[in-house]
Amino acid sequence: MTAAVLAALAPVTATALPPAGGGAPTSTVSTATDRAVPKTVLNPGQLERGAGPRVPRVLGTSIVDGSLEVPVDADEIDLLGPAGDDYVVVAYDASGGVVERVSPDGSTRVLRESNIGLNELSSDGSQLFDVVTRGRDRTVVRVLDTTTGEVTARRGFPGFVDVLDAADGVAVLGGTAPRRTISWDTATDETTRIVSRQGYRADLAADRLSTFSGDPYDGGCSRITPLSDPARTLWRSCDDIEVAASPGAGRLLTVPLLLDGPLSEVAVRGAAGRLLGGYGTRGTFGPLVWEDDRTALITVYGVRRTAVVRCTVAGPAEDRTCERATRLIPTPGL
Question: Does residue 33 fall inside a structural domain?
């Protein structure tokens, strides 16, 4: 984390907090007219095969990392992220889900026997955050060591909270009832209110925070700010939300704020929201991540076949192409 971010997350008095609605926007507001920009339609079966993904992805019930493919014995898996040379996944079968640490040789170790909440992995893979809602007015967050499975910290929060990002023992949480974004030092158990808006995405390394100005189902808009200065708006949109920022935070992947049905379009934008391009599919999109500052990895569930697709979004027009980063598999459910 940068010094600016660390300073912003340090305990402060109430008078030092940034105002909930403070700061004038420093960029234009996107509108629905962005939809008129042509999209590249992705059909996995029509794309050439390229190199394997340089960040781990899921294909069916396997983890794909470069040329390595690790099958996991489960009906379905969600990848939380890497932990050293291993991977942390939520593995589901007919009896429910468990959180496992998976080694490259396919061996597994259970970290959490019963998965009934939300999970977030710290950026270095050392901490697993287990988020469980208790009734309507309380959320309990536990921190587990991903090597031993031992619970190293635990705290209850009023209302609903979710862990947005974590690094170096500090987590950023977004919550409702009341709406707020806070940081939590898991070693000292100190919490700090960052801003009085509900955070939905944070990136400690890139110093970025995405929040809602209000209930998105009742006119609330998305607002992207520096995490260290949440009163300064970088981009505001009432039509789209950010789902992934490139490592240098220079480009964004965004999707419609309110979806009615499967996700079938994704936009590529500059840091201030300028539309750079977009992708569509006749099927549906799965997880969206950045491989580096120039390439995005998009899981495409095609009408018949599925693959992780790599798209280059920067450079000369002739270089902005897409290819498959994995083999093809039948689309689940067919």
Answer: yes
